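Two records follow; treat each independently.
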Amino acid sequence: MVAKQHLLINGKPTVVADMREPVEITLEIEQQGVEVNRQVIDTADYVLSEELAVERKSWRDFHNSIKDGRVFRQIKELKEHYKEPILILEGAPRGTFVFGEEVKYDDGLAPNAIRGAYLRIAIESVPIIQTKDYKATADVIGRLALKLYEEEKSLAVVKGKKPKTLEEQKLFVVSSLPNISEKKAKTLLEQFGTLRGLFSASKEDIAKLKGFGKVSAEKLWELFNK
């Protein structure tokens, strides 16, 4: 799995795109000043960070994946690998998810089946973003990557500042770990209290914390134990 806190190439925010995704989308993303690294991804279509990934579905593919149940398996896998998965639904007819609106589909799929799928995904706490076309999809992904990059820059530990108190020293040590921002370091210390407590924590306990996914917890645990 390709993942860092936020992905960078040559100091620029980066999105990893699955090789099977349309080139038109990746070109549009690059127009926003975001690097795109195309490779094969087993889960998700676009990876923006260790925690955030996007599954993109065209309207036709969404229909088909409801019929064969594939979309629900994909959502489950997304949640297992990423703390903040997002589903982008591209090209849905106007009024599709407006309850009470009468919408007919040319393949005979009942509107209630579509809305039932929408509710099931919502219950899984996976947000659905509807986009008009591939350009709008690229705009959403590019904006997300840039926002992650700016947030991480604002939370970066100030280099050269000598920690004075014991709490500052512990924060300095934890935030120096690979892919651990100052915000994440504070979360870890608030939960585990001491460095000893953190270093002896299980990967399951780390994965439960806000901002940490299964993969990031695994990497951190391996750092402490291998």
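The next record belongs to a different protein.
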Amino acid sequence: MYPDLPRTHKNAYAVYLDYYGIRSDKSDEVKAGWLFEDKVPVFLQSFIIQDAPSILIVHGYLDHSGGLSRTINFLLQEGYSVHAMDLPGHGLSGGTAGQIDAFGSYAAAVRTVRQALPKVDAAVGHSTGAGVLFQAAGTGFADIPALVMGAPLFEPYKWNIVRRAVKCTRTFRESSRRPFKRNTEDKAYNQFVKQDPLQVQHLHAGWMQALEHWQVQMQASGSVELPVLMLQGARDTTVDWKRNAAFFREKCPNMKAVLYHEAGHQLFNERRAVRRLVEKEMADHLHTWLHR
């Protein structure tokens, strides 16, 4: 059953939409509220255009749906209904901020959201969200027929060094304050994200350990047959994009990968000229997949 935002929350939600610049006026109907996965509230918001194909969006680690407002607005402008969820421990969802015991909790949240929606024709994921969607859709855990992945996570940048640090450093094993890297050449976005109250502020070693276990599961999984588009920035220093591209290519031989030499990790929030190229590639593939 789709969640219903309590009446007392509606004014606050209007402030949220305005703060993140989400153009809900481009849709015919807006729904928002919380679903529950293993007693954890998972925030879901939908911007519905009547009789339009439906896209599910999942953000990356430390981020939330509001951080992908430009992508939400672009897809609405293209005539798609958009459903955006906050992963557990992120944004307006429940759970410890930035922490997870197992990546399976992310996949379970995606499945819970998918089951609450009448249909999902394709999904768009960024970073961790892309990796989780790839596993959930590819294994049939969640019914998602096509996927766009922006800078998908499999291995983080300099993962071997980070992994050793997690195992050897007691202080890091608990948590450490998040450094806000310059993941895009869009100066306004870089400034905004540092002030964003819903950004996760601390990194947790437990999340890193969960990631390591998830990587083992991903390596053992079978091939993925659904249509997949991978969009990747060559300046990405958050994920090891070369190793990740090779991994996803091995798992999904029919995947198309497009590299943007002037894009960083936040390629959905890159400067306008680069972002327009990314959006056009995404739009072309969605149109081919969904308007046959």
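Discussion point: The radius of gyration is 18 Å. How would you locate this feature using only the token line?
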